């Protein structure tokens, strides 16, 4: 497959600019006594329409449009793969009750607050005032979901990933995100069709349960076998790192593919 030189140049320039600004702002935040991730998160503000887009929109249009798939790969998949390599199963099992309690408090309180805000917000701030319930539910769900990649990055900066507090924080964030995606499926059904589809929600729960069960039961055995193969082969290409990356990308692809089917099916039903 041949890639046009102009597109390749734009892509490489955009990636270079984003990485350079992110590392620079991260270093500045670290010198100020803040977590480097604080400065790195400001990269989108600096390179987006608020600052660079306002001062030099032509530059932003040329070098900044990073594909969404690349953003998802860097900010979601790779950070989550890194987090998965640091999770201690024994520590997670030891703190099951605190995990459930923290996840409940950290999701229920912002959910109720977001729903209340969406319910009492003046109608002039709503695009479609007659759909206040879906709007309030969506706002509540958005506020109750945690940012797992950001949590991973903060724990890495604090060197707390291997500590019990880091394991507990990461596990709680993953549980909240899983519940948030299920809630988002329900909210999407209500916004689109005015009611919840039990079949779609049930399918999502079943797929999620099967995915987690396979990952927990078969995952360690598969990884241990693959690591044994790398130790036996002793190839400079086939290493433990390559195994982790390949398995992580494969699991991410399988999970996203399972999520795509319900939405595509709903779209086909809506169009028909």
Task: Tell me the number of strands.
Answer: 0
Task: Tell me roughly what share of residues is in helical segments.
Answer: over 70%
Largest sheet: none
Contiguous runs where pLDDT drops below 50 for at least 5 residues:
260-272
Give the overall shape.
Answer: globular
Query: Average pLDDT across residues?
Result: 76
Radius of gyration: 21 Å
User: What would you call the structural class?
Assistant: mainly alpha
How far apart, in Å, are the first and last alpha carbons?
Answer: 36 Å
- The tally of helices reads 13
Fraction of residues in β-strands: under 5%
Question: Which sequence of SSEs, written as H and E, runs from N to C?
Answer: HHHHHHHHHHHHH
Descriptive tags:
13 helices; 272 residues; mainly alpha; globular
Descriptive report:
This protein is an all-alpha fold and 272 residues long. Helix content is 81%, strand content 0%. The chain is globular, with a radius of gyration of 21 Å. The two termini are 36 Å apart.
Please specify the SSE layout and strand pairing:
Layout: H1 5-31, H2 36-47, H3 52-55, H4 57-63, H5 68-86, H6 89-94, H7 96-120, H8 132-144, H9 148-157, H10 164-193, H11 198-217, H12 219-233, H13 240-271
Helix pairs in contact: 1-2, 5-9, 5-13, 7-8, 7-10, 8-10, 9-10, 10-11, 11-13, 12-13
Describe the structure concisely for a colleague.
The protein is mostly helical and 272 residues long. 81% of the residues lie in helices and 0% in strands.
């Amino acid at each position: 497959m041949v890639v046009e030189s102009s597109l390749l140049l734009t892509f490489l320039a955009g990636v270079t600019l984003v990485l350079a600004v992110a590392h620079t702002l991260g270093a500045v935040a670290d010198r100020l006594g803040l977590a480097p991730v604080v400065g790195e998160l400001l990269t989108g503000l600096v390179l987006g329409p608020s600052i660079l887009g306002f001062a030099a929109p032509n530059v932003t249009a040329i070098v900044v449009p990073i594909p969404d798939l690349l953003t998802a790969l860097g900010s979601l998949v790779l950070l989550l793969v890194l987090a998965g390599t640091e999770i201690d199963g024994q520590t997670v099992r030891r703190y099951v009750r605190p995990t459930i309690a923290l996840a409940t408090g950290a999701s229920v309180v912002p959910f109720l607050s977001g729903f209340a805000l969406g319910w009492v917000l003046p109608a002039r701030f709503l695009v479609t005032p007659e759909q206040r319930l879906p709007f309030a539910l969506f706002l509540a769900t958005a506020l109750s979901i945690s940012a797992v990649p950001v949590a991973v990055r903060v724990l890495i900066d604090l060197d707390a990933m291997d500590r019990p507090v880091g394991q507990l924080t990461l596990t709680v964030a993953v549980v909240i995100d899983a519940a948030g995606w299920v809630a988002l499926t329900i909210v999407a059904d209500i916004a689109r069709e005015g009611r919840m589809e039990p079949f779609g929600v049930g399918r999502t729960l079943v797929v999620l349960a099967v995915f987690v069960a396979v990952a927990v039961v078969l995952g360690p055995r598969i990884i241990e076998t693959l690591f044994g193969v790398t130790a036996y082969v002793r190839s400079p290409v086939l290493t433990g790192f390559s195994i982790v990356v390949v398995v992580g990308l494969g699991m991410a692809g399988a999970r996203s593919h399972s999520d795509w089917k319900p939405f595509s099916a709903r779209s086909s039903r809506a169009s028909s």
